[in-house]
Amino acid sequence: MWCWMTSCAGLAAAASVLVSGCAATCGANPDKLAALQRGMSYEETTRIMGCSGSPVSPQGPASGEVSTIEWTGPGTIFTATQLDFRDDHLLFYTTYSRGGW
Question: What is the pTM of this model?
Answer without folding.
Answer: 0.73
